[in-house]
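Sequence design from tokenized structure. All designs in this work follow the same two-part layout: the structure record, then the generated sequence. An example of the structure record is given first.
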């Protein structure tokens, strides 16, 4: 079937259900970023494979919203279809809510699967529809249609295992006690835990249910005297089930959460996070007493404990060794004149990471983007879209690994031949932006919003901006993207010691070039004086940054000093694990620069 035929089938299904439109999101019951294929219907019906998107199909038209990372990709993948690509956040582009108000009339109904839409978003859609006298109804018409048109992927059912205390630094019982303390502060007695990363943090449980994200499809329910894990039977071995039981965690089947909520006493007070709770569950929770607030686990897991931080540092040493060997392989292949495609890069990286102890999978699909392809922030080569890496310009490589001691995320932009003056300028300005946030010193009341501007200064000076945040938190043997902290406009979270964050400014010039330099940073203490408590960042990522493209005269003395100190640190940490040939190569790559 063509995309237009699939959209027509959605339209017909909505009409058959007595409705006037249907909405699909890239979401699941747990608000996961990377979805189990079982829930990811939007790419099948629309042909758009990017993240964080919304499709609305009415009786007369259809539109898909994508964010700034996917404007170019969305335009290309939706070209030739009836779907209008909406560049979310761009001037003159209506929001989803504005579109619903304008395209639904009094008495009409929009359908969505309330189990797969966060409550805050569903409530916003309902309010937008109400402005024109229309209404929202939770009804899943997509699943039966999807299953009638193709073989739908099954729910994941991979083996689960518990991390050890040596890996996590805390037992499940200790973490449950931390959550209960936070519930008391909020005036609540119960919490339905929906985020798969939150369930994993609470119970120390991991699996392989999501692509590149070692988590299990499960819920948890914490009250003041019990904790229940909702997961399909048989997924935990007897020893791990006993360990959980010893930590006060009982087991029930995955679909039983809402029934269990209904069965709780009326005096139970739920802490409800509308952003993290799907609409159907939200409706069930609101039959009890509730208080509104963020799921406390987001903040708790955002600050890594000393054991986790020690393991994360080890993880980055291993990852750095793999990246050094990959870059040596890449340079050798280019020098020998080998024909390399973008998809070859992912294989080369995986080969080197697989040699590292504790590695088990990538933390996301590798972005290996040559030349203009890198202007698409989340470009992924596959099928016929797989450019040859020519001996000129830049190759952007964004990738990461999952290890038994942590999760990594790194981007480097490699020169693969002669560069234009523009390419050298863009690279230098991006490096300046990267360094300025990495060397920032700030007071302990600073938010992600305040710190985001540190990075944008050098690019803003040239009237260049990037349509995304500067950085995100990174999970621990978990999702590579983790909140609540981020370096992003409007992020209100105050930075604390123990938080980790990526530093990844970039330049994205459509049909010309894409450049990004990314390290992971740790927020650490920088001392206290009469002005207050100071914090700063220290690099976790240990990989040389290419200096060949840099216009050194553009850098300040402080920026040069930071880069030289960083490279000295990289060599110090990695050289003990390298061969003599690798040490010689790394010594050259980390040699100091100067004017």
């Amino acid at each position: 079937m063509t995309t237009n035929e699939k959209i027509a089938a959605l339209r017909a299904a909505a009409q058959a259900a007595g409705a006037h439109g249907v909405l699909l999101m890239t979401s699941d019951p747990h608000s996961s970023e990377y979805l189990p294929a079982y829930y990811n219907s939007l790419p099948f019906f629309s042909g758009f494979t990017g993240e964080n998107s919304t499709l609305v199909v009415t009786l007369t038209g259809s539109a898909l919203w994508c964010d700034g990372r996917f404007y170019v990709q969305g335009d290309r993948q939706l070209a030739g279809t009836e779907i209008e690509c909406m560049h979310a956040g761009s001037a003159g582009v209506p929001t989803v809510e504005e579109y619903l108000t304008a395209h639904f009339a009094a008495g009409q109904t929009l359908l969505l699967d309330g189990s797969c839409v966060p409550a805050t978003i569903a409530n916003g859609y309902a309010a937008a529809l109400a402005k024109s006298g229309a209404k929202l109804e939770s009804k899943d018409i997509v699943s039966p249609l999807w299953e009638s048109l193709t073989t739908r992927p099954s729910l994941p059912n991979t083996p689960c295992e518990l991390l050890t205390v040596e890996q996590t630094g805390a037992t499940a019982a200790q973490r449950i006690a931390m959550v209960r303390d936070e519930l008391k502060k909020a005036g609540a007695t119960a919490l339905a835990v929906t985020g798969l990363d939150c369930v994993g943090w609470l119970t120390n449980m991991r699996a392989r249910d999501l692509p590149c994200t070692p988590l299990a499809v499960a819920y948890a329910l914490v009250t003041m005297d019990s904790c229940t894990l909702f997961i399909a039977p048989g997924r935990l071995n007897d020893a791990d089930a006993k360990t959980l039981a010893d930590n006060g965690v009982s087991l029930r089947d995955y679909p039983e959460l809402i029934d269990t909520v209904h069965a709780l006493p009326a005096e139970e007070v739920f802490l409800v996070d509308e952003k993290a709770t799907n609409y159907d569950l939200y409706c069930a929770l609101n039959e009890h007493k509730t208080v509104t607030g963020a799921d406390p686990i987001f903040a708790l897991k955002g600050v890594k404990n000393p054991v986790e931080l020690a393991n994360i540092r080890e993880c980055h040493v291993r990852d750095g060794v793999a990246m050094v060997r990959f870059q040596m392989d890449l340079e050798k292949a280019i020098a020998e004149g080998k024909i390399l495609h973008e998809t070859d890069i992912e294989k080369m990286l995986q080969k080197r990471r697989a040699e590292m102890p504790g590695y088990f999978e990538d933390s996301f699909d590798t972005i290996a983007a040559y030349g203009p392809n890198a202007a698409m922030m989340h470009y992924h080569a596959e099928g016929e879209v797989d450019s040859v890496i020519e001996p000129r310009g830049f190759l952007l490589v964004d990738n990461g690994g999952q290890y038994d001691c942590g999760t990594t995320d790194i981007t480097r932009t490699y020169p693969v031949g002669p560069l234009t003056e523009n390419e050298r300028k863009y690279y230098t300005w991006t490096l300046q932006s990267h360094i300025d946030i990495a060397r920032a010193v700030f007071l302990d009341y600073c938010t992600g919003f305040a710190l985001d501007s540190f990075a944008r200064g050098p690019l803003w000076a040239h009237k260049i901006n990037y349509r995304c945040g500067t950085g995100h938190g990174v999970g621990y043997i978990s999702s590579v993207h983790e909140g609540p902290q981020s370096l992003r406009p409007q992020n209100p979270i105050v930075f604390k010691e123990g938080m980790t964050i990526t530093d990844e400014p970039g330049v994205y010039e459509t049909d010309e070039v894409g450049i990004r330099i990314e390290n992971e940073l740790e927020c650490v203490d920088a001392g206290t004086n009469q002005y207050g408590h100071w914090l700063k960042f220290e690099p976790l990522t240990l990989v040389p940054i290419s200096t060949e493209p840099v216009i050194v005269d553009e850098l300040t003395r402080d920026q040069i000093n930071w880069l030289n100190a960083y490279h000295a640190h990289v060599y110090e940490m990695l050289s003990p694990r390298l061969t003599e040939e690798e040490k010689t190569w790394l010594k050259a790559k980390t040699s100091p620069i100067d004017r």
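The mean pLDDT is 96. We note this feature because it recurs in several other targets discussed in the main text.
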